[in-house]
Amino acid sequence: MSILEINGLSKSYGTGETAVKALDNVSFSVEKGEFIAIIGPSGSGKSTLLHLLGGVDRPSEGNVMVDHTDIYQLNETQLAIFRRRQIGLIYQFYNLIPVLTVEENMTLPLLLDQHAVDHQQFHDIVEALGLTGRLHHLPNQLSGGQQQRVSIGRALISNPALMLADEPTGNLDSKNSNEIIELLKMFNKTLNQTLIVITHDEQIALQADRVLSIEDGRIAKDEVIRP
Amino acid sequence: MNIVNKITLRQLKQNKRRTLVTIIGVIISVAMVTAVAVLATSFQDFMKQVTIASDGEWHVEYANTPANQLPTIQEDEQTDELVVTNDLGYAEFDGAERESKPYLFFKEMNEAGFDLFPVQLTEGRLPQSSGEVLINENILADTKTDLGIGTTFTVDIGQRVALNSEQPLGQETSIQYEDKKALEKLKPKQTKTFTVVGTMESTIWERSWSPGYTILHYLDPSTLNEGDKVNSIAKVNNVNSSIYDNAEHLAEQTGAEEIHYHDSLLRYYGVTDHSNLKKTFFSLIVILMLIIMIGSISLIYNAFAISVSERSKHLGMLSSIGATKRQKRNSVFFEGGVIGAISIPIGILSGIAGIAATFMFINPIIQEVANVDQKLSVVVTPISLVSAVVVSAVTILISSYLPARKASKLTAMDAIRQTQDVKLTGKAVKTSKLVRKMFGMEAEIGLKNLKRNKKRYKATVFSLVISIILFLTVSFFTDNIKKSLELTQADINYDIKLSGFEDVSADDIKPYTQLEGVTASTFIRTIYLSASVEEKKVPEVVKDYKQRPLDNGKYSYSVNLYAMDDESFRKYAGEIGKKTDDMIEADQPSAILVNEITYNDQSSGRVIETEGILTNVNETLTLHSIRGETEQKGLGEIEIAALTDQLPMGITSTSRPGGVDLITSEQMLETFLSNQKPEHARNTLYLNSSDPMKTQEAIEEIKPSHIRAYNVEQSRQQQERMLLFMSVFTYGFIALISAISIANIFNTISTSIAIRKREFAMLKSVGMTPKGFNKMINYESIFYGFKALIYGLPISIACMGAIYVSLRHTFTYGFALPWISILYVIIAIFIIVGSTMLYSIRKIKKQNIIEGLRQENL
């Protein structure tokens, strides 16, 4: 059963002669529980693709079906609520709110929804991320690796349909990078969480079930590594 | 609390300095709005008190109410207290010493009347039963009559009527005389006996020209007969617009003949529409509040805009994890709510406290200036409070609206792309090559920084411009009033002027020259006459103005003939270069003609200077007394001894076409009049004193009520206080508005510098020296100040011009720019901008380059 279906997705920036086609007629589908790595050189369009999957940008053409919902048919408020409940985004620079504590940052999507926090689930995630004892710290009191773990926690808290990570280890040293990838893999396996990761790092790409190579806005290769 | 608000709150706390400056700015603006509202209600109350003190605390008068109907009015539910009053009439005053005041005027009132009308007891007690009276203390001061307290006297009381028409005359009409023959008589109606129980100050029923001294009798309404008609005057319980209907209804019911309303008091309750006062008052308040709102909106808007741009990354991030537009927008409104919740109560309290303190300071001044005993006291009505809160809340709402909309539009992509507030305009920012050549690269970068960040640059310049305009126009206005005052005082070289109506004789006022401290004096007798002038001697402008000659082809001139005491006349003649010996000794009376007139022509709006009469020395003028154009009585001819354009001290020019001033000596006037008594003559004495205030006191002690003393020194002091009084409000207002602007500038500049931390680090990393860096910042400040002045000064000058043009008739001098104020403004602008820049840059200077470069944009 595919959780994500992309059909003829294109995205252009600018108009006329200066128009740049960042994505050109991309189609593929993702099964629930898959771990996909997207690789490609700078400017190939992989970040654009990720943003379109996450519902934070709008495509020029084509559609994105998440769990059978065409997300770009939604109005802005519906889309915001969709992101809050169905998408977990992890950025290279963590993007935590500096004035909120670790606990508040992690539960932010639920709090935006005025949704009660499932304490058991929260506790499990905190423990898995190794953040016990850090819950009342502010982001700037944590190391880079710890901050990235908080943002993973935030992405997981609402049991999203899709977890999207944009160079999650790009700002970390190799030890921390490994730990983050191990965590992501663990959640992918134990929670059957669908995971799409953009990376430059071939070591990381090789740990995925399937690798999509993007060049000049098109899918150049679609390899299944582990069926 | 929801999470977005929690974030907002913590961010406010984190940015303590900016939040504080914003809160202070809003407090000032709320305080000002409150002050204006409270000032309005307090002034209204003050005017009520003043009016009550001068005219009495009453609202409706039912004239000629049948006495048996009084209980109907008394028991009406709107009536609080009822004055029953009646004018008994006049009686001959045997001891009268003044021709213009030969009567006693009797008025009677019940107890409420003595309570509600301003009756100032000076000695004795108020009358308490029928037959008891209070007398005007001037009776004892002006005459030798023995009407002291305890005296019982009997008089025939009746009506004053005009001889020819039998028309009754009252206190508003002065004694009617012609050529020492009375034109009125007294028709006695009843004989009454009274006992004096006290004396009082002159009352509101007695003008300086009134022919009768007031005596107030106690009226016991129960002694009135069935058929008697009296005036009943009601103080109403609860003043509102229903007062009119109710009064009319009552008048109809009781058969009262006329209704009079106390409009001068009612208008301060806001219930009468007879005057435009309400409208004027209201529009003044609205204008003041709008100015405050503009000032504060630009501040608060800026504060919110800054806060939103600082938070744009977080808002975008929130958006990427699913915050809706509404949540983002509401976070800004929430911020406004928090700022308002803190600032509005504090602002209202400090506004009230500020007004209370101001009142404490100005009460002594206002009592002196307005010559009243009432005090301005703080009156806070629910309406003034509610309007202050509403105006403040609306101000905050308006200010936060645009930033809120911007916040709601911030998308996740904005956060991801890290676009921030400094948005480059599409095309390259052009700066003049001149700037680089003259000031160097640093100046060019400084200017580019400003131009690139247009919105914020404009907001800062705008608030600077508003402050400049406000300061300059208000100071121009007060400067001009001050200058007018000085001008009116400039030509005056006497200290005290004593004058009166026609019944003040030379012998009455001349003794005052003997008072202690008097160093010099001038006595002037003024006679108002007319002259008929042959056509050939009348200048064209005067013909145009007067339009048609008399029947005999001559033109009628009004002439003011001033006769000075001989010594002063000799001195004046000497000043204009005329020897007086031959004038005084000659048989033919002669005079000096002041023959230059200056007047403002209504039709052309131009000031015209011309000769009054085309005449020469040694020619004569034929003078008449004034009594209508047909019935002129010739007085004789007077020779023109000299022509001049200079008036003696104390005399103000008539300055109108068809009028001239003649100056002569007392002795020559005697010769000229040769025992004829002119109709309109006044005597005036000008005194110089070594201690004007002390001399004034001595005069006040001995002078009778019909001589008026005008103390130049005192009136100068009064006007100065008036000016001070105005300055307190105007400069207070400017100071607060400027404070808001400064808060605004501070917020804007310090934030724009904080946002540019990374840029500064970059500039340093590519080798900008600390000196160069300072230079860049200095140039930025200079450009800010310069731009503000470029807009502010011309607009201010235009506003001043507009004020000048609209008030031209009150200005007796040319338009002059207030250079000193302009200089202050220029200096102040650069100091404010420069010091804010320096303050904000202090931290950045110390920062490590690498830290700065690494710094994520806030």
Automatic annotation (TrEMBL), chain A:
GO cellular component: membrane protein complex
Gene3D superfamilies referenced in this protein's UniProt entry, alphabetically: P-loop containing nucleotide triphosphate hydrolases (3.40.50.300)
Species for this entry: Gracilibacillus halophilus YIM-C55.5
Domain ABC transporter stretches: 4-227
Protein name: ABC transporter
Molecular function in Gene Ontology: ATP binding; ATP hydrolysis activity; transmembrane transporter activity
Sorted UniProt keywords: ATP-binding, Nucleotide-binding, Transport
Family: Belongs to the ABC transporter superfamily.
One Pfam family matching this protein: ABC_tran
Keyword Nucleotide-binding set for record: yes
TrEMBL record, chain B:
Keywords: Cell membrane, Lipoprotein, Membrane, Transmembrane, Transmembrane helix
Coiled-coil regions listed: none
Subcellular location: Cell membrane
GO molecular function: transmembrane transporter activity
Membrane topology of this protein: Multi-pass membrane protein
Membrane-spanning residues: 20-40, 281-304, 332-362, 382-404, 457-477, 722-746, 788-807, 819-841
Start and end residues of each ABC3 transporter permease C-terminal domain: 287-411, 733-849
InterPro entries on file: ABC3_permease_C, MacB_PCD, Macrolide_Exporter_MacB
Residue ranges annotated for the MacB-like periplasmic core domain, each copy included: 19-202
Chloroplast among keywords: no
GO cellular component, one term: plasma membrane
Similarity field: Belongs to the ABC-4 integral membrane protein family.
Protein name: Lipoprotein release ABC transporter permease
Source species taxonomy: Bacteria, Bacillati, Bacillota, Bacilli, Bacillales
